[in-house]
Amino acid sequence: MARAIIIYESKYGNTRLVAETIAEGIRQASGVEAEVRELKEVNPEGLTEFDAIVIGSPNHMGNATRSIRTFIDKLGKIKLRGKLAAVFDTCIDRDLEKAVKKMEKQVGEKAPSLSLAAPGLSVRVEGMKGPIAEGELPRCQDFGIKIGNRLKV
Hints:
By secondary structure, the protein is an alpha/beta fold. The protein has a single domain, classed as Flavodoxin domain (Rossmann fold, 3-Layer(aba) Sandwich), CATH 3.40.50. 35% of the residues lie in helices and 23% in strands. The protein has 4 helices and 6 strands, in the order E-H-E-E-H-E-H-E-E-H. Strands 1, 2, 3, 4, 5 and 6 form a 6-stranded parallel β-sheet that branches. Strand 1, helix 1 and strand 2 (32-38) form a beta-alpha-beta unit. Helix 1 (14-28) crosses helix 4 (136-151) and helix 2 (66-75) runs parallel beside helix 3. The chain is globular, with a radius of gyration of 14 Å.
């Protein structure tokens, strides 16, 4: 059975909610398991057990959080050849897609053995603390479905 892990960091709970919604979408693909874990609960060496690694971060001044950036840097030191990756962020309108584009680029540079499962997803939130903007959660579920479909055996 194919397995995906969604790793996130969240200050106000918005990025966690997006991660959980993406996992729901992944699970809709028959034969695909999805686990959701906060970054501090993840052992990078254990990532070899998964077929897809999805990484999410709140947008912090146009970037992923420092912890997420450090985590992505470590991915290149792990044997992940043939695995899929995807990234997402949560942000207010003016920063839409800034962090997610940088995360995609960083994954490509630091872990070139990973293949992107889907273009990155930038999820709008209403203000610093949220909530997630109306209509965004269905996009998150669709993002998960795309990833799950890529993992189907």
